[in-house]
Amino acid sequence: MIPAPYLLYLGRSDDEVGLKTSRGLAVFRRDDCVGEFRHDECRFTLGLPRLGLAEARGAGARTLVLGIANPGGRLAPSLVEEALEAIAAGMNVASGLHQRLRDEPRLVQAAEEAGVTLFDVRDPPADLPVGNGLPRAGKRLLTVGTDCSVGKMYTTLVLRDAFRARGVAADFRATGQTGILIAGEGVPLDAVVADFISGAIEALSPARDDDGWDLIEGQGSLFHPSFAGVSTGLLHGAQPAAIVMCHDPSRPRMRGLPHYPLPDLAECLAMNLQVARLTSPDVRAVGVALNTSKMDEVAARRLCDETADRLALPCTDPFRFGADPIADWTLRCFAPSSPKPTVSA
């Protein structure tokens, strides 16, 4: 476990979506966050106290979390310098970037001298198996998306809480850097060698016989040319009984690929079901989760209702309006003693 409390790094970021790791920790582990570190040119805030590095250490921060994502996941020179300042102040440093902290000699030397630790969150476990596709016991729900960063992790965590509120055993299975920092465990799927992606998820979400659910955080999109391979392996390894489609209706183009429009929701849903059926022939869609954070409430609720009518599935913004419609529908669909609803995508 990475020592808390945390100081969340925003730096000079001008990309709101790229702050998703810091934002996720501020939402789901707020009690473990003492503040945020940002420069004047950063126009975003997490609503936490703005603290300098030494000031944050004095307030009890034990770890600076570099909770930003940039193209390629590289450690910019300015990021290295500020990490060195945090180490000098006596803090550990955690990062989910692809470029490892341990591969920057100055950080390694400084950490050793200061007696603090560098945490590279995007390190997959050793000796991951190759997926075998054999049927395994248990019920699994996987969130999928029309694009990257559309709310799959938020939806998965809120659904987990909704299941538990109904007395149903439910566990969150993290597959990305933010989810791993929140949960304290998981597999950083985008750092796994391609041959082992499905096997990594089989290991992360093994068979269970307690009538509970594994709620698996989705990654990427089958329609995103950069990341469709990760999404495919995840669908096969998860063997989901149920999928929830996540979508940001305010986004007209793929993240990072302005020459690619987002797919139609119905088309994306159908494709995910088709791909999932390789290892889970009876998979079904159980809901649509919209990220309506950029819409007013009236328009957001109207869009949820229209989407539900169009796709014949429950639709909500789980974080804003709650996950009850999807949770209730899912548990009805898979209740052993109840007639199954006839509507299916």
UniProtKB/TrEMBL annotation:
<dbReference type="InterPro" id="IPR011669">
    <property type="entry name" value="DgcN-like"/>
</dbReference>
<feature type="domain" description="D-glutamate N-acetyltransferase-like N-terminal">
    <location>
        <begin position="46"/>
        <end position="124"/>
    </location>
</feature>
<dbReference type="InterPro" id="IPR027417">
    <property type="entry name" value="P-loop_NTPase"/>
</dbReference>
<feature type="domain" description="D-glutamate N-acetyltransferase-like C-terminal">
    <location>
        <begin position="132"/>
        <end position="326"/>
    </location>
</feature>
<protein>
    <submittedName>
        <fullName>EBNA-1 nuclear protein</fullName>
    </submittedName>
</protein>
<dbReference type="Pfam" id="PF07755">
    <property type="entry name" value="DUF1611"/>
</dbReference>
<dbReference type="Pfam" id="PF17396">
    <property type="entry name" value="DUF1611_N"/>
</dbReference>
<dbReference type="InterPro" id="IPR035402">
    <property type="entry name" value="DgcN-like_N"/>
</dbReference>
<dbReference type="InterPro" id="IPR035086">
    <property type="entry name" value="DgcN-like_C"/>
</dbReference>
